Please model this.
Amino acid sequence: MEILLHILLILLLAKLFGEVLERAGFPSILGELLSGMVLGILLIHQESDILKFLAEMGAIFLLFTAGYKEVHLRDLKESSAKASVVTVVQVIVAFSFGAAIGVYFHLSVLESIFIGVAFSPTSIGVVVRTLIDMDYLSSKPGSMMLTSAIFDDIIGIFLLSIVVTMATYEQFPSGVQVLIILLKMVAFVAIMFSLRKWVFSKLFDQIHRMHVKESIFAFVIVIALFSAYLAEVFGLHAVIGAFIGGVMLSDVPHAKIEHVQSKVTGLAYGIFVPIFFAFIGISLNIATLQTIGLFSVLVVVLALLGKLIGGFLGSRLIGFDNYDSLIFGVGVMPRAGVELVLISIGKEMGIIGDEVFSAIVLMVAVSIFVSPVLLKKAIQFKNRANSNNT
Amino acid sequence: MVDHDGDEDRIRSVRSFAEMCSEMFIKDFMTKDLVTISENDSIDQILETFDKYHFHTYPVVSEDNVLVGTIDQNIILKILLVHRAPRIEHTHLNAVVFQGDTAKTIMIPHPISISPNETLCDTADMILKHKIDRFCIVEDGKLVGMICKPDIIKEVYKLRGLY
Model:
């Protein structure tokens, strides 16, 4: 049972390395990736099916908890109007930069589009500390960053569903096929909304009265897996279903009891998610990383620039001044969890190769390191300019 | 020798306790005189409420007294200690709470509520099973009362003749 040793070591090293990185002021995700890289070099040379399955569960639970804990439909409705322009602009620019790299390096259409999709989301958690420290969380750009980050994740996840379906056609889809993809997505979301409206609340009203142990927790997990499975039935990817399933449970009171939330988070972040991040580290082709060439450098630079320029332009369009637009552009640069889910799916489906996979993991790591520093500089730049003017 | 009479008395008293417990309704001993927070109250007004009274959790209501959320001491502490928040707290939702300026932006928007016709036994079961310390009591969507663990303990004590 070598797999037991592998899981044990993954969890142990992921938490230890994660702690070291946290204490050094960086998100633990970097430590978890590193633990996978170390184990990939020293011990786990072949990815077993069990490990692969656990990593897939990690991706499913990462997005399920994101929807379940982090999204409130009410907030989305209220902020959708004000954030839509700036989000769409920054996603379009970031996407175009990603796709352009693919075209420049003569990659396939699908692979180029996929790089564009992987450039789209934002992981705002990386810069929250800086925003708090600089007293900028409640500022105009700070508040817009928070709203926009959720929207570009959602856009990224929907773009992913299109690319995944395109990959199954193994060619660029025709107009009719695109229409079918959209109809499937709409049908899936409509079913989930109907379940939320007519079933989930009533279901949990009964479940919380059940006598068996952990009934609510078990049913939350059942719904996570059901949503993931139903999405697959509709030809979407399981992680997309898990995310939407999480959002649909996010305002069901009995499903959100603190006690249950902490168990769901425990299952996700205590077991599956670290295995998922470590698995990405294990899957990294060190040989590819050693030959970091123009491609990887361009991926890193254009991924950051895409968000900076897109964010800047979008903010200018909605009336932010140059300084606030710059702060917003820098603030939406970081990437982390969702991007890694996207590229692991891309690799698994054979859409992207080792070089693209490694370059995007490198981009994620660099964005986590540089975004907080650049954001601080951008805020200081504005403060200096303001004090010079007064 | 086995004391059968004593056993029967005990069984009778257990039965009668279970029956009585199932016949007692929350509406008969819930707190009706509530301190509430309006959904549009500012952070300063909320802090004043927490300073003036010493409850753990306050229900947040809309203008027409519909229960829309709760705010508890943990949220207030989180907001007050925002500069010391560990990285694990740097989630999108927490960031939204940290920058919130009214009750509706910082409250927990999915409060657990029960009906005033819930029985003492069922409520006590839920408190134990789901580790919930208090419930808002809602009738037709409107907040009508609150019940917390000490209230339940007091009523169970009374029923068992220990109070």
User: Anything to note?
Assistant: The two ends of chain A are 70 Å apart (CA to CA). The domain at 2-389 of chain A is CATH 1.20.1530.20 (Na+/H+ antiporter like fold).
